[in-house]
Amino acid sequence: MKKLFLVVFLIIVFIFIGDFFYSRTVRPSENFKIGVSFSPDMAKSLGLDWKSVYLDILDNLKVKNLRLTSYWNTIQPQNNQSNFSDLDYQINEAGKKGAEILLVLGTKQPGWPECHTPDWAKSLTISQRQQKSLEFIKEVVEKYKTNSSIKMWQMENEPLFPYGADCDSPDEDFLKQEIALVKKIDPIRQIVVSDSGELSLWIGAMSASDIFGTTMYRTVQNPILGNFTYPFSPYFYTLRSNLIRNLFAKQNQKTIITELQAEPWFSQTLTQIPIVTQAKTFSVQNLKENVQYAKKTGFDSAYLWGVEWWYFMDKNGYSVYLKEAKNLF
Question: CA of 211: how far to CAs of 30, 78, 84, 152, in Å?
């Protein structure tokens, strides 16, 4: 109870300082860059043709900053048999349009079930599975390290945050092994490590990375509270970032927003929720407000989470999200 009280007290102090001090000192970045996270698997789960959606993101929305995945279970469904054709397609098309890529590596990547472990690797011991994961990471980095469209690597997705189905326990030592491997193969590109923006301390992830990535989900669905909006000001993130960097991670260069909420949060899959409910839960105004909220942090970039949902809603008669997204980009 003492620890809980201390955490609550610190959060209140952060919010207080943010509102009364940081709000007067932090200025939005003049060159704030907006990108999107894209997952072919997510698009397919919503009944969409992922290649058509991806091309429209590049050609119609004209997105120039992409966060892409390298799902282990998709690329290597059989041991030692890799098929990079889908990822090759995404990277090549991005290159044609001059888009820049943040490529996620490792087992835990954006999109449920978070840990994209191939079926053949699930029966291995943790140490065996980690070794196979390292071999796969090495294969991915060596394949794409000469590709000029890839600007940064992201090592895992919230690797120190205990969330996701069939995930091994967070292992900070293994995370350091992964980062050391990537830096040995590619000493040039910076490495991003992300963490939960609302539910983690950030110390481990920021200490391990060149660039720290925070998630930013404003309204979530809680089994007890229902739809719950976090009471944090934008400066809550800024203050935490500066405080932890100065105390624990001085080598870390900056903070970016790796996931900015741009779709509704439900405990069920989106295809199980009535379209009208989805539109009411997350409106176009919510999208606008979240982007403005992110800009107020002073961070220089954000990857929106929910681009596949915009196309899903467009397919179901709600074109307003795509229209607003086109304005944003």
Answer: 19, 33, 27, 9
Q: What Cα–Cα distance (Å) separates residue 69 from each residue in 36, 101, 142, 236?
A: 12, 10, 16, 29
pTM to 2 decimals? Answer: 0.93
- Specify the residue for token string 């990537």: 182
**Amino acid, single-letter form, for residue 264:** P
- Closest by CA to 155, choosing from 196, 194, 114, is 194
Contact 260, 305 (CB under 8 A): yes
Helix (H, G, I), strand (E, B) or coil at 219: strand
Half-sphere exposure of residue 267, counting CA atoms within 13 Å on the CB side? 8
Task: List the one residue out of 182, 144, 175, 133 whose CA is nearest residue 158.
Answer: 175
List the structure tokens of 204: 């481990």
User: Class of 34-328 per CATH?
Assistant: alpha beta
In the chain, domain spans: 34-328
**CA distances in angstroms from 270 to 40, 47, 217, 221, 284, listed in the order given:** 16, 11, 17, 13, 17
Residue 143's SS3 state is helix
Share the mean pLDDT of the chain: 94
pLDDT tens digits along 120-163: 999 999 999 999 999 999 999 999 999 999 999 999 999 999 99
